[in-house]
Model the fold of this input.
Amino acid sequence: MTTRTARAQAPAGYDPSQFPAFAVTVDIVILTMVQGELQVLLVRRGQAPFDGMWAVPGGFKLPTETLDQAAQRELVEETRVDAASLLTQFGAYGDPGRDPRMNVVTVAYLAVLRDVGTVVAGSDAAEAALVKVADVLDGSVELAFDHLRIVRDALARVRVELEVSGIATAFVGTTFTLAELRSVYEAVWGVHLDGANFRRSIVAEQGWVIPTGRHAQSGPAGGKPAELFRAGRAWKHGGPIRRPRRLTKGK
Amino acid sequence: MTTRTARAQAPAGYDPSQFPAFAVTVDIVILTMVQGELQVLLVRRGQAPFDGMWAVPGGFKLPTETLDQAAQRELVEETRVDAASLLTQFGAYGDPGRDPRMNVVTVAYLAVLRDVGTVVAGSDAAEAALVKVADVLDGSVELAFDHLRIVRDALARVRVELEVSGIATAFVGTTFTLAELRSVYEAVWGVHLDGANFRRSIVAEQGWVIPTGRHAQSGPAGGKPAELFRAGRAWKHGGPIRRPRRLTKGK
DNA sequence: CCCGGTTCTGGTCGATATGACGTGAACTTG
DNA sequence: CAAGTTCACGTCATATCGACCAGAACCGGG
Done:
């Protein structure tokens, strides 16, 4: 096929009136934790294509807003939750034919929320539900468009995000025990973590968790009451990624 | 301002004929290393806006190609270099007014090349040049649009890429000494690395470098001839990111 | 040809980080 | 109050990391 619909070399010389038109959308992979299970908020489509199928919530970007603002707006519309800092852009998707009706490029965001369940009802979407991420990955729940790939990429992103930032605290409440926080890591990474070592590592990390003086109540099985922490603010960054650690350092 | 030009809630109910039209472009931050200096390939704009200013090369995405393919095509047009695996998408930019003429969302890619200098001449751009990244960051060279931000984000990305992948080998030749490779890390991270420790770490990393039997010639100052390596293939990944290491592991 | 200068490469050593595990404290239920 | 559970803290062996040293292998000049 011949390219150059609009002098595909740009921007050093092109006709602004002559370019392929796209719709730009933002899609938000909203992750939450329900009883140790990682879940994703999906909406059911009410029209073709992919009528009746589940999809990641999203919507058009407006010319008057930034991508971040568009994602923010969609998040609020979907969950009534207003928390700018936890939105992380992680990819753009524009394969031809990904939407059979028109040319769409979508910019995908990751949002991590606690207990989004109560808030789903307030959505203005026709139908919204929390679905186990595992069911999406193994194909039990089929997603519209290329949303399976998007969810997969979101999951990959949150996995590294857990390690390099304190984003895990977004999964839990404003105060939480280290056992709760640990269960987030265990669910997302699919591993078992030693409680004592986990405590050592997390507390050593600067700005991730801050001890409140208070203690939680014991669970139904008893046990020593756990210390309550609140989130540090070491996980609000704007751009792509950071963390230039060293491979091996000299003098 | 009122939103909802096209029922901004989508995709659970919208009119496909009624949405804001955008141009979608791909911009490529092409980094290379010239005598220990990190440089970026820029093109000079030949028209308004930002006439005469430097910009990151890029161009329109076509409806018939993927974003990766568009980036690939632009890279070839700009440098005649064909190497798919070293293109990494790292961000999307769509602030209103970033292009005063129309609504443009750009998807930014990072490309790392060796010795792009000889190849710049073959570009079909009006004027292309390698510019020190430092000069861009400190404002000595002003960039058009929001390209300064894009270059900054690209640099942040390549910094972490160096650590988690063997991408550093893309900066050097097909065979290289560890001193050459080390100078890449030192330039990008802005630090001094101990040669002996660097060797230990790099060689321990699986699939990053592979020893050829051969040895390089000594430099003008003499010295023991360095062993020659070639790149392993541990740095071709598609999606966003990977690497779920653990914070602290249990049994 | 020897010698000082240079670079590469292998090794040592102490500090720190990590994984495994033990023990007492504090709370539950019966 | 006894038994069971969870949390908090400490210990210990091992692995990794940063600093550094010394020998090997090359250069140039005397």
Observations:
- The CA atoms of residues 156 and 188 of chain B lie 9 Å apart.
- Residues 1-13, 236-251 of chain B have pLDDT under 50 and may be disordered.
- Chain B touches chain A through 91 residues (CB under 8 Å).
